[in-house]
Amino acid sequence: MIGCVKFTRSIDVVIRSYYRDFRWLALALRSLERFVSGYRRVVVVVPQASLARSDVAVLGSGANVVVQSCGDFADDYVGQQVTKLHADLYTDADIIFHLDSDQIFVAACDLRERLFEGSRLKMSFDRSRRRPANDGWRRCPESFFGRAIPWDLATPLPLAVPRHIYAALRACCSENHGKTITDYALTTAADRFCEMTLLRGYAMLEEADEYRWVDAEHGGLIPECRTFWSRSTTPSAIAGSLPTCLSAYV
Amino acid sequence: MINLYCEYNERLELKVTMDLVREFRPELFAFLRHLDLAHLVEEVWEPLGCSARTMAAVAFEERPWPPKGVGARALRGVAVAVISDDGQALLTPALLSPQHTTNIGLAAALTKLLLEDLIENGVDWAALLVNTRSQVVAGELRSAGFVPREARVLSEGAEFVSFAAAPKAALEQLGLADRRLGDILSLSLDQNQASRLTSFHLALAAGISNYWAGRVGWAEVFPGLIDWVALPPGGITGTPGPGGGVIDPVIFVGR
């Protein structure tokens, strides 16, 4: 049976975006269409208010792209984290592959080949001390779960998560903290809350053997995916570092 | 058509606040300092915010990282309305950062946001105070559906009259009603409409500039920063007060 699981479980790419990143989003969608296989569809989620800033439906005109809206948050930095923690409500896929708008594929990539080792989903962590032990993001899962975690789980996206984890994590929050995970996020300082560490933390603490844990020191899970930083640069500025089929599109 | 401000405006956050000074105090000082108007915060907006209901459409830029803390936000535009209890709003033309003087997309977007929020808050009339000898601003306002009313402000020998319009009608006349905010910010409009918005907003900005410079007599627009609570009963349009008689309010503003 090993090797079958990765082909029977559906994978959706989920991108939580907002108005500021729409140019990046268009580029990311183009790169997915051009280079990536092994997924069922792309689900783009944007806050309601962002719909007034651009015709997002145009972005979703590709056959495999679905655009959905979510609620507005006064602080959308927290808002995008909250949306990601509810990603299972926007898709029924078995595996949810989180990608940011400023993450661009620059070479051919079969997600199934990259995300699985045998039947186990790969999950990244960082064994190094690059992020100090008292760092807020590093400590986030320990504070949340009340259990020690020796490794840094705040490694960057992309991240693939089985859908059952989201509901389990939300239930865990209600049980341990007496509040919804949205309220937990909203009442925790931005430098002490990191949604990815919670998703990875649940996997590590509750079902570690189900995953193949990959030390980020040996490189990212998806080398074909380049991460830019949308808050400090623009697609036009990085066009020269992209393959021609993408740079011509910028 | 790509313009000077397209890409920049995409990054701006826009919102309406009922508490401008409390929510944006440091940003407001920094923004107004570059316009030589920092005194407005403590001399006008702060006390006004305590006594009158105000609404402000603001546009701000966020620094790359971190998203919070001192210096995280920089205001780039503000449009203020002071609202009376009887459903009227006095507007002050949008103030923009010095480098955004011709950023009409931003000025128009602030106007749209503010007028839409006035409608949601049940405001029946939006008014600007215009010099009775104005042709440029008065002409622009008339073409946008504003009509002269009765309220007057007298200051420094100049007389300003209220020009009012229903916010919904003004939005429609300016072509802002059914347009996506993003299209307005990027001025992705036909040239006639872009020109219309340009003449409207540049006229208002130029019209009020003499007031900000202390030359009230030469100002075509008087800021709508009027403390309604201090007015006699009857409202600014001279509707009947408690005594039943029509009052034609005249406000004397010294310097």
Mean pLDDT of chain B: 89
Would you list the SSEs of chain B in sequence order as H and E?
Answer: HEHHEEEHEHEEHHHEE
Q: Which consecutive residue ranges of chain B, at least 5 long each, have pLDDT under 50?
A: 237-248
Largest sheet of chain B: 9 strands, mixed
Percent in strands of chain B = 25-35%
| CATH topology assignment of chain B | Aminopeptidase
Quaternary arrangement of the chains shown?
heterodimer
Beta content of chain A: 15-25%
Mean pLDDT of chain A: 92
Question: Termini of chain A, distance in Å?
Answer: 44 Å
Instruction: Tell me what the CATH architecture of chain B is.
Output: 3-Layer(aba) Sandwich
**Most residues in contact: chain pair:** A-B, 17 and 13 residues
Give the CA-CA distance, first to last residue of chain B: 45 Å
- Cα-atom Rg of chain B, whole angstroms? 18 Å
Structure commentary:
In chain A, 35% of the residues lie in helices and 20% in strands. In chain A, the strands form 4 sheets. A 5-stranded mixed β-sheet of chain A has the order 4-3-1-5-10. In chain A, helix 6 crosses helix 9 (195-207) and helix 7 packs across helix 9 (195-207). In chain A, strand 8 and strand 9 (120-125) form a beta hairpin. With 250 residues, chain A is of the alpha/beta class. Chain A has 11 helices and 12 strands. By secondary structure, chain B is α+β, with helices and mostly antiparallel strands. Chain B has one domain (6-252): Aminopeptidase (3-Layer(aba) Sandwich). In chain B, 36% of the residues lie in helices and 25% in strands. Chain B is built from 8 helices and 9 strands. In chain B, strands 1, 2, 3, 4, 5, 6, 7, 8 and 9 form a 9-stranded mixed β-sheet that branches. In chain B, a hairpin with a 4-residue loop joins strand 3 and strand 4 (88-96). In chain B, helix 4 (104-120) packs across helix 8 (191-212). The longest helix of chain B has 22 residues, at 191-212. Mean pLDDT of chain B is 89; it is low at 237-248. The interface between A and B is medium-sized, with 17 and 13 residues.
